[in-house]
Every structure is written in C-alpha cells, then in structure tokens.
Amino acid sequence: MTTDSISAGGDPRRLLSYVRSLAHRVRLDQRMTWVALLVLAAVTLVGIPFDWLGMTVHCHPDTSCEFARRGVLYYWPPALMLAYTAIAVSYVRAVRARGLGGRVLPYTIAGAATTVVFTAAWVAAALYFPSHPESMQRLSYWGLVLDRLVSPWSMIGIALLALARLERNIGLLLFTLVYLAAVLLVLPMNEGWGLAGWGLQARFAVPQVISGAVLLLGAVGFFRAARRLQR
Amino acid sequence: MTAATGTPDPDAGHPVTGLDEVVHQRARLGILTIAHEARRVEFGYLRTQLELTAGNLSKHLSVLEAAGLIEVEKGYEGRRGRTWITLTATGNTALTEEIVRLKQLVARVETTNGQ
Q: Which residues does chain A have within 8 Å of residue B103's beta carbon, measured at their own beta carbons?
C-alpha cells in the first residue's frame, strides 16, 4: 500500500496545502448558516404581534407613560428554545445527508444559555422597576446599552458569535458584529422609534421589524453564497 | 509498511525520520483530515472529495482501520447501506503529529533556502 506514498523528499508544502484545502471544503459543507438566520428572522417577526398585544400601557396626564412588555417575556423564552432546537435538528439532518457529522451542539448550548440570561434579566427587571420607576429614568447611555444587551434581539447575536466561531465563518462573524452594533447602538429596541402620534406599541414594533429584516436579508445572502459555492 | 503510530522521537534529528508511512500518504492523510474536521464522515463523501474509486478507498480505509486510526461503522438508512468513518484518539494524535512534522519540514526547507 505504499505505491503512491509521498516520498520523504516529496513536497511537504503541497501536502499541507492539500490538507488545509480539504479541511476548508469540509467546513464549507458543514455550514447551514442561512437556516439559523431564517429561523431567527421568523422568530423575531412572529414576536412582534406578541409584544404589541401583550404590552400594557398606562399614560399619565403629564404625558409620561408606564408600560410593561409582558408579551416579550411570555413569547421569547419558549420561542428561542424551540428555535434553537429546530436549528440543531435541521443542521444535523442536512449535514448528515451530505455524509458528514455536525458540530452544532455548542451553538445550541450557547443559545440556551443566552435565553436563560435574557429571561432572568427581564424577570428581575419586571420585579424591580415597577417599585423603582425613577431608576429607569436615571439610566445612563451605557445602562441603556446594557438593557439592550440582555434583550432577546441582542442575545440572538451573542449566540450567532458562537456559531461563527464554530463554523469558522468570517462572513457570519462580520454580519453578526454589524447586527449587534445595530441592535445595541443604533436601534432603540428598549425605547421605541417612530413618527409623532404613533402609539407605544407601534414605536416598539419598528426596531423589531428592522432587526427581523436584517436577519432575513442575512439568510438570503448566506443562502445565495452557499448555492454559489456548491456549483 | 509500519502500522505503528508512535510519538515522534525527539532524538531523531530530521523530521523525515519521524514520518509514519501509514499516515504520510496523500489519500490516507486526506481521509484522516476529513474525518478530523467532520467528526464522522460517510464513505461516499470521502470517495467524492478524494476522487478515489470505491475499491481504492476501501483499501486505504482497511490500512487505517488495521492501524487503529479510524473506526468503520456499517449500517442502513432506510434501504440504503451507509458506511461511516470516525477518527479514533490514536488517529487524531497521528494526524496532529504528521502535520507538525510537515510544518517542521517546510520550516527546514525554508531555512535551508534562506542560507
């Protein structure tokens, strides 16, 4: 069986390059990035009516309003758990059909962990802020960013960082960093956004629509890139 | 052909002396690399990626299995027979050592060329 062995005097550089290209090929074939983004986009967009209908708003004569986003708290934890399960099952089935093993478990664990963090933070906030309304008004800029960080929309991004590491996917890493910058620093996920006269529910829906659209566009982009690579 | 996959001998000066013939072969190195990246790989995927005939691939798999570097598991999915290959811990070590030696060889060649 040594007929086509590479002799000791063969080119080790070419052999190393061969090993790297094979490893890269396998990693490309193991990727199912678009599935994860599509499922997360669907969860984000489906969550909007839950937030809208589950939100309780009490406005005072001085035009200030108190609100509680109960819909987010009831919808997102089970929705995220179902989403990560669906992503893991889709990954394993698709990769197995290609004749490979998968590496999706760490992403699923990261997803579950971030869901627990978000749920714990929102439950704590729901218990604390109603009796300390002044604390919410005194939140600094970075306090608001931290508040956005523990939101489900940011937690999706944190878990996507784990997927980018797992897939060694620079494209997904860059996409996730842009997405996280948007939901943490640009989109007012915890303040709402919209035209004068819009209700609080509509103002909170706008950043969620943008977040869902970004994830959906990402899914389309990664799907097209994957198709192009397979040709 | 030696089936042993021992650790590199630190006293063996040139990296070539530590090369394992079982691993230091293009197709078998390819099998180990793919199995390492994929954790588990199917026979058909290996055949396509390595551009080998079924018979040739089977021979290489037998060599690696005999050396304890891979495990071969045969089964069915529906009516379709499928063969899955998994890298063993010994196979993982052998692959890592082979790559280290290849890098040493490249470094040695570059050093020699630079002089």
A: 12, 16
